[in-house]
Each structure stands twice: as structure tokens, then as C-alpha cells.
Amino acid sequence: MARISRKILALGAAPLALTGCMGAGGAIPSASTPITQTEAQQGAQYHPQFLAEFGGAMTGTHAQYVEQVGKNIAVQSGLGNARESFTVSLLNSPVHNAFAVPGGYIYTTRQLVTLMNNEAELAGVLGHEVGHVAARHSQRRQAESQKNTLLGGGLAILSGILLGDSGLGNTLSRTFMEGSQMLTLKFSRQQELEADDLGIQYLGRAGYDQRAMGTVLASLAAQNGLDARLAGRNASVPEWASTHPDPASRVQSALSKASAAGAGGVTNRDTFLTRIDGMLYGDDPAQGMIEGSTFIHPEMRLAFTAPQGFYMVNGTRAVSIQGQGGQAQMTLAAYSGNLETYVRQQFTALGGQNSTLAPAQLERTTVNGLPAVYGTARVNNGQSQVDVVVFAYEFARDRAYHFTAIAPAGRAATFNPMFQSMRRITQAEATSVVPKKLQVVTVARGDTVASLARRMAYDSAQEDRFRVLNALSSSAALTPGQKVKLVVRAR
Fold this sequence. Notes:
By secondary structure, this protein is of the alpha+beta class.
């Protein structure tokens, strides 16, 4: 969590790694139409907001390499002046995702790049996003969503399940979508498959192995499954929190289409691995880090622990906490020095301009030496009710942080251990927070999966993580001279 803004990003972006879209697409339009001035202006308007939402654009040799590959694959789209018209950004985000917005703006997170194993896979992911731009998917989805809010169908579905179709439901669901970085307009399942098809075509035109689209989707599916197992949850993301078809369901389709097009083409594996060596992996300490079930922020000097059975997603504006018993986020807002006023303001903000949402009463307490105030409001949700809790802490006369939580009526106590875990951290604790980075090594004689996996900067599932990171099956062995990736401490 690096920065906080209540401005919502209202555009048709296209996350690659999240799951599940519904709806129909249509025939792919001609991709030879140049990007229009209107499209370029729309993309330029939202580009700075998008960068801020997803950790900012990275610079340096890693970003330059991603930009080079992205522009080279964009040329294959046939869009006029594609190399000059496209802006390719490497995002400083710890989630596996890629996006596209109108006007030729395409993005991939550094975390997704670290999961790839060759340049063809990088070109495939970026080609998928170029395909969204070329097929004008965002514009078509925006046209279909005029009856909804600017954020489109995802929030309408979420509010319908969680809080009914009330204005409060839309506002609260938007809040939690922000916290988990699921705030973009969804593409239809057919549009996602169209983008896969276009990406495969671009790979072939550029001379890459077209199977790369399928192999990178397979790695995404494996990573999703591993993350779910480690968090003790189901691998499938609920439909209401999804923006892409499950990568696992698209793997065979992509591989079949690539095979039908004919095998061949380069992957540039060693070049790719050499170029991404040293890339930041996982959370950036400047945005706070998730270590197991604990979130620690060395700059904000705070830490808290998620409830048992819940998992966290670290965003640039908030940390989301999700589980079967409810969901929450930790963030901050402007603070004038009065915690009671602060808490009431958060309820008002959740309810929207025309809402009377307010806590039944406010309670003042102290948590680990921090002055704190909390309140609960019960909200009708169709045939049932939910409890909304705001729990705020004063860290300084001009600085406060708060949790917002939603749970079925009478079950908000599931978050009490988390509320009570918020604490200041010492300077020594802050200094001890060390980021992870990607290290590319050459397999030596005698090295095995087990021996290299023990060098991974994790206390558990080292071999599982190593195999997923390197796209190695459970029976795959290593060959001397082969390059592989490790995740190690930056110092």
C-alpha cells in the first residue's frame, strides 16, 4: 500500500491473470485501422491514473526490454504507426496481471514477467493486450455498459451477491474492488479468446513459437493453484471477483490453435532470462510487504495479522483481506485529529452522497498503545443483513489508518483478532524488512531441483515454488548448463 486516492479508474482495462468473464463478443474487426486521435486522448487521460493505481511505471533495463518486446509485437497487429502509437509500461506491482486500454496503452506487471520463461511468452502476453486494442474491445464493452456505472458489470454482480442492488452495495463493493486491484471493466469471455487468437497470430508473424501463449497460460494456472493451496482456499476465484476466463481453461485451446498453425519459431529463452535477472519479486517494501499472514509496512511503521483462514492482497492504495467469513481492507484517509469524526466520515463515504449510513454507536479503546475508535452499522441485503465495521487508529496527530470490514450480520467478530493485532513497529523491525528479487543461475553438475529449491527465500513449499516459477513438471529434472530462476533476498 503506497498511496491512497479515492478517485476511481473508470475505463475498460483488461487484466490477463484474473479469472472469469461472462457475455458475448462478436467478429474481430479489421485491425488495420490506425489508433484514432479520440482513442489516443482517452488513453492519455487515464494513463497517469492507471500507473498510480498499479504501483507506477518502472524504469531501467528491465522496463526497456519489456518496452522493446511490446513495441515489436505491436507492429504485427497491422495498426498504422503501431511502434510509435503504442505505450508499453512495466508496472511495479506484485500481482500477476497485464492490461490494455484504448489508445495503444498496454501494461504488464513485473510479477507476471517473473513467471514467464522465455521472450516468446512475454511477446504472447503483450500480443494478447495489443489484440484487445486492435479489436477495440474496451470501446465495445463500454458501449454495452452504458446502463451500468462506469466500472461496468463486475461491480453490479458483486453488489448483487454481497449487498443487493442498493447504492450502498455499489459503493461498498467498489471500495473492496479497489483494495484487491479488481477495479476494471470486464471483457467478455469471447473477447478474451479473441485476444488470445490475435496474440497467437502476432507471435507467428514475429517469428516466435506460437505455443508460448499456451505455455504462459499454463504457468498462470499453476501459479493460481499454488497460491490457493498455500492460502488454504479453493483455486477458483469466485465469478463475482473475476475479470478473465480461468487460464487453465484456455491452455489447451491456445496450444491446439498454435499446433494447427504449425510448429516452429524462436523462444529466446536464455536472452529473456538474462534480461530479467535481478528483477524485484513480490512486494516492494515501499508499498508494504505480506509475510505469511502478517502485513508489515516499514515506512508507515505498522503491522497487523490477518484472521486465520483469510488471505491478503496488497494494492497501491489499500490492503484487502478476504475469506469465507467476510472481507476487509486497511487504508487511510485525511485526518484532522478527531478519531470519532474520522470514523463517521468513513461511514459517510461508504454510503455515498445520499446515504444516511452511520454506526449505531462509537466505542473508544486502546490497541497496543494506539488510540482507537470503532463502530458498526447493520445493513439490509435483500433477504438478509450484513454488518459493516470501521475500526480506526491514531498514529499521529495528523495521521490515522483504518479497517473497513463486511461480514454476515452477527459475525463481524471474526475480524476482532485482526483489529487487535494492529501495532507500531520499531525502527529495527522496519530496517529488517528486505525485499526479494529474481536471480537467474546456471545449473551446475550435481545440482538438482531439491538442492536449488533450498536456496529459495521461503520457509515452506520451496520445491513447489521453484517448479512453478520455472514451469517444471513434478517429474522434470535439470540439465547442466540450463538457466533457471530463483527467488532470493535482495541482500
